Amino acid sequence: MTTAQPPTPLKLLNREQAILEFNRRVLAQAQREDVPLLERLRYVCIVSSNLDEFFEVRFADMLEAARDPLSTVTGQDVERVGRAAHTLIDEQYHVFNEQLMPLLLKQRIVILNHADRDEAQRGWVGKFFEREVKPLLVPVGLDPAHPFPQVANKSLHFIARLSGKDAFGRDNRIAIVKVPRVLPRVIKLPAHLSEGRQAFVLLTSVIRAHLEELFPGRKVEAFSQFRVTRDSDLEVDEEEIANLRHALRSGLTTRHFGRAVRLEVVNTCPTELSEFLLEQFGLPHAALYRVNGPVNLVRLNELIDQTDAPGLRFKPFEPAWPTGRLPRHKSIFDKLRKGDVLLHHPFESFEPVVQLLREAVNDPDVLAIKQTIYRTGAKSELMDLLIEAARRGKEVMAVVELKARFDEEANINWAERLEAVGAQVVYGIVGYKTHAKLLLITRREGGKLRRYAHISTGNYNPKTARLYTDLGLLTADADLTADADSVFRQLASLGKFKSPRRMLLAPFNMHSRMVELLGQVEAAARAGYKAARVVVKINALTDAELIHALLKAAQAGAKVDLIVRGACMLPPGLPGVSDNIVVRSVVGRFLEHTRVCYFRWAEGSDSDPGEALFLSSADWMSRNMFRRIEVAWPVLDARLRQRVIDEALQPYLHDTLDAWQLGPDGHSVRIGGDGGKGGVSAQQALMRRYSDPE
């Protein structure tokens, strides 16, 4: 038998550029004629939000790496990614100004600048400024006693150059005005002033029109709104601190003032002022982004929310209750003793998970509840139920991930509330994020203890469960629930790792098992098995070893289909290297979040099933495999396994409306052409399926 050859060396795609390419796909949603107009505007807002996080985290890390002489990241890499970001942002504002604004105007939805407002509208805006805005503004004239103020991350400011001298005869020309976050960024004009339209004014336009009133006796010669984006990763040396929660609580106050990485100004900002700001923030010219519009398009979500136009939004979709598999108003415990229940969100409701916990809280036979908490939100019925369970004397253990990025404060607050009622709260493992999604309930039944579990690819957040695609399993399976219990024990006791019965657990055995399964498919393909197959649906693919294992399987003859929503560093379609690999990305109404891994290496038999299908909380990234607590679990029931294939894999492999195909150069092309011209959408098909009564 021939020895397997090492994978052909190739240059992987750049991760940061892959993230920008994903956002280009999201921006393309704003250009689709079949997407309702206000939803198109929302996609523009989503891109802005994504790019904020990109600069706060990814680009900030890249800049830091480029300063390290031992890093492989070069200054040229930073420049290339920076240029790509500039291009994407310019395109984003072009879509906003040249495509969406004219279409909104046709729908009699307008954003009025000062020049567009008539006398009555200007009068109303002037009164609004005097009453609501001016009292909260504090202009700061710069001089030795008034140095350049602290500018928080992503906070809106104005810079102005003033004429003449100040009240004390000094020539201090530059002033800064901070715009408080509490002020609305979009204000809807009263109907009697809107002439039958829905008319809005932006807060920046209100301040701009009355900026000179903040500087009595002086003229504003030039001005610009500006916003700085800062490195927002919380840096905490977990090995050197005694209490992670207290350290993170104090770190939240300093996060807003990390190192500056991007400066946004309007495109009319005079060079003199932009140069001054770059100097103050210690930024190079490449970090300056001149934009043709508001410096923070995210806040236009306020316009979407205030607009009365149901026909310009997606039609409401109500997730289905799995009536046939989980009858309403009956004990979920009773149902799970008869078999597992698979939930597919958002097509199916998340409410059964809430009901399971609610039933556990109210059941006197339930003795203990354990749950991981990653992103639950500031308001959460699930967390309220855990608190109530502790109050009722049940043993409650909560594994709270305090370092869930941008959810740290909410999670710290929940941890404190849980501890206050006697729940056992642990923060996972030092140096590892707990990203696994587990709920375990222990109940006394007939003198014995029985466990019930919920395992999921998504978060315990009912709000995002209506927006993200995820799969969750409700089970009383003895092996899976024992594995879940061992994970909680591992997180609490920090004992030696003991291999679970069925689950895979990162950072211990998940990565090696995935590599092993890919090797099994490779060996089958080399032995002549024509149906050797890999289908993986994940959010990101950046781990080099998994990429090379995929390449080896494909080069051996296995067919490899990858459905990667976001960043993918594997370049598909290279002759003789990756031409047996197809990489798709699906961007639709819902955020694709499901993680499914399917491997086929033989025809099934009594001794060898010939295939394996895993659901997982983990993406194929090194950080997920080695620096996080993640779980993957096999779907062994043939009926459920086929359902996962039929709903979470096959439709996405045949999508011709929302799907993009990645090329070897890292650029994506929409599979169905321009989009919005017909075609088949996996998400829409699933919505139709679950809209029909069972």
TrEMBL record:
<keyword id="KW-0597">Phosphoprotein</keyword>
<feature type="active site" description="Phosphohistidine intermediate">
    <location>
        <position position="435"/>
    </location>
</feature>
<dbReference type="InterPro" id="IPR025200">
    <property type="entry name" value="PPK_C_dom2"/>
</dbReference>
<keyword id="KW-0479">Metal-binding</keyword>
<feature type="domain" description="Polyphosphate kinase C-terminal">
    <location>
        <begin position="331"/>
        <end position="493"/>
    </location>
</feature>
<dbReference type="InterPro" id="IPR025198">
    <property type="entry name" value="PPK_N_dom"/>
</dbReference>
<feature type="binding site">
    <location>
        <position position="593"/>
    </location>
    <ligand>
        <name>ATP</name>
    </ligand>
</feature>
<feature type="binding site">
    <location>
        <position position="565"/>
    </location>
    <ligand>
        <name>ATP</name>
    </ligand>
</feature>
<feature type="binding site">
    <location>
        <position position="468"/>
    </location>
    <ligand>
        <name>ATP</name>
    </ligand>
</feature>
<keyword id="KW-0067">ATP-binding</keyword>
<keyword id="KW-0808">Transferase</keyword>
<feature type="binding site">
    <location>
        <position position="405"/>
    </location>
    <ligand>
        <name>Mg(2+)</name>
    </ligand>
</feature>
<dbReference type="Pfam" id="PF13089">
    <property type="entry name" value="PP_kinase_N"/>
</dbReference>
<feature type="domain" description="Polyphosphate kinase N-terminal">
    <location>
        <begin position="13"/>
        <end position="111"/>
    </location>
</feature>
<dbReference type="InterPro" id="IPR003414">
    <property type="entry name" value="PP_kinase"/>
</dbReference>
<keyword id="KW-0418">Kinase</keyword>
<comment type="similarity">
    <text>Belongs to the polyphosphate kinase 1 (PPK1) family.</text>
</comment>
<dbReference type="InterPro" id="IPR036830">
    <property type="entry name" value="PP_kinase_middle_dom_sf"/>
</dbReference>
<dbReference type="GO" id="GO:0008976">
    <property type="term" value="F:polyphosphate kinase activity"/>
</dbReference>
<dbReference type="InterPro" id="IPR036832">
    <property type="entry name" value="PPK_N_dom_sf"/>
</dbReference>
<feature type="binding site">
    <location>
        <position position="375"/>
    </location>
    <ligand>
        <name>Mg(2+)</name>
    </ligand>
</feature>
<protein>
    <recommendedName>
        <fullName>Polyphosphate kinase</fullName>
        <ecNumber>2.7.4.1</ecNumber>
    </recommendedName>
</protein>
<keyword id="KW-0547">Nucleotide-binding</keyword>
<keyword id="KW-0460">Magnesium</keyword>
<dbReference type="Pfam" id="PF17941">
    <property type="entry name" value="PP_kinase_C_1"/>
</dbReference>
<feature type="binding site">
    <location>
        <position position="50"/>
    </location>
    <ligand>
        <name>ATP</name>
    </ligand>
</feature>
<dbReference type="Pfam" id="PF02503">
    <property type="entry name" value="PP_kinase"/>
</dbReference>
<comment type="function">
    <text>Catalyzes the reversible transfer of the terminal phosphate of ATP to form a long-chain polyphosphate (polyP).</text>
</comment>
<feature type="domain" description="Polyphosphate kinase C-terminal">
    <location>
        <begin position="504"/>
        <end position="672"/>
    </location>
</feature>
<feature type="domain" description="Polyphosphate kinase middle">
    <location>
        <begin position="121"/>
        <end position="303"/>
    </location>
</feature>
<dbReference type="InterPro" id="IPR024953">
    <property type="entry name" value="PP_kinase_middle"/>
</dbReference>
<dbReference type="InterPro" id="IPR041108">
    <property type="entry name" value="PP_kinase_C_1"/>
</dbReference>
<dbReference type="Pfam" id="PF13090">
    <property type="entry name" value="PP_kinase_C"/>
</dbReference>
